[in-house]
Amino acid sequence: xxxxxxxxxxxxxxxxxxxxxxxxxxxxxxxTAYVGTGDAAAxxxxxxxxxxxxxxxxxPLYKVIGVGDFGVKDNLYVAFMTFTLWFIxxxxxxxxxxxx
Length: 100
Prior knowledge:
Shape: elongated
Largest sheet: none
């Protein structure tokens, strides 16, 4: 069960999960730096747009690595994992009022 790049199914899963998690954490940090941690930042939709941009940026990266060719389930997984890690990291940074 390997594609043209020689990545097996398990290695593919590990690569996708790692990139999703790191992208989510990076999106949380960038959201904090760009939007801030004040009261208005907690209701800003700009932070969600930053997270969405991090989801979209992953797909060309997967193509370069050779892990492309996703189905619906894979796309939902990428979006969910990125959102989850973004939500956790951004919430922690908002509640601790970290400033960059």
